[in-house]
């Protein structure tokens, strides 16, 4: 090769190597970012009472959250159903009901999804923000624009909490497990207030 060609190629090789290393660093950083999948607890900010647990899963690149455990108040219907929901969720039991759907992940932000209030069947647009440590999730349901909405802060539960779930909603339950009606606990309002 000619010396002038070699002098031009060395900086290009260095530039290519630097770009490749930068790309690897970005991929490595995004691979280490936490993801919303797992079990989450919603606590009423005013009373401090746990209102519900939610299980997030990823399906075809979209994230959904289902009611995984509910905490019933005395006098509440022990087996509430989504009487006012539409489509395939009409009359579906609250336990296992997908209330958050279609969330697209952009790093720690989740967008373009919806959240369902099973008490009245209303579906709101939704956004979520996951904390950098993956332990706190801010869920925002809104009408029209995000400014016209309400936030809830949910806390990630440890893996040991899966043992408290009804087998019908527990992804870790052995196959063939039947729902244990006596272990089901429910709440009057697991959706955004």
Report on this model:
The protein has 193 residues and is of the alpha+beta class. It folds into two domains: 1-32; 38-183, Lipocalin (Beta Barrel). It is built from one helix and eight strands, in the order αββββββββ. An eight-stranded antiparallel beta barrel has the order 1-2-3-4-5-6-7-8. β7 and β8 (149-156) form a beta hairpin. The protein is globular and about 40 Å long. It starts with a helix and ends in a 37-residue tail after the last strand.
Q: Would you summarize the structure shown here?
A:
The chain has 1 helix and 8 strands. It is an alpha+beta fold.
Provide keyphrases for this structure.
Lipocalin; eight-stranded antiparallel beta barrel; single chain; 35% strand; 193 residues; disordered C terminus; 1 helix; alpha+beta
Mean pLDDT: 83
- Could you name the ranges where pLDDT drops below 50 across 5 or more consecutive residues? 14-30, 180-193
Count of helical regions: 1
Major beta-sheet overview: 8 strands, antiparallel, barrel
Annotated CATH topology of the largest domain: Lipocalin
CATH-scheme architecture of the largest domain: Beta Barrel
C-alpha Rg, in Å? 22 Å
Approximate shape: globular
Number of strands: 8
Main-sheet strand order equals 1-2-3-4-5-6-7-8
Tally of domains: 2
Instruction: Please identify the structural class as seen in this structure.
Output: alpha+beta
Q: Which percent band covers the strand fraction?
A: 25-35%
Please write the CATH class name of the largest domain. Answer: Mainly Beta
């Amino acid at each position: 090769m000619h010396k002038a060609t070699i002098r031009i190629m060395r900086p290009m090789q260095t530039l290519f190597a630097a770009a490749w290393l930068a790309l690897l660093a970005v991929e490595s950083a995004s691979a280490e970012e936490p993801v919303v999948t797992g079990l989450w607890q919603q606590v009423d900010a005013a009373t401090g009472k746990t209102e519900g647990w939610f299980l997030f899963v990823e399906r075809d690149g979209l994230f959904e959250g289902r009611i995984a455990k509910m905490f019933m108040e005395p006098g509440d219907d022990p087996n509430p159903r989504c009487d006012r929901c539409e489509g395939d969720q009409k009359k579906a039991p609250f336990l296992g009901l997908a209330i958050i759907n279609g969330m697209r992940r952009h790093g720690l932000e989740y967008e373009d999804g919806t959240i369902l209030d099973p008490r009245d069947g209303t579906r709101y647009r939704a956004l979520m923000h996951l904390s950098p440590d993956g332990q706190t999730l801010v869920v925002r349901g809104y009408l029209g624009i995000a400014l016209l909405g309400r936030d809830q802060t949910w806390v990630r539960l440890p893996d040991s909490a899966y043992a408290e779930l009804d087998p019908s909603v527990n992804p870790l339950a052995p196959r063939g497990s039947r729902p244990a009606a006596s272990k089901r606990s429910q709440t009057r309002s697991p959706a955004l207030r």
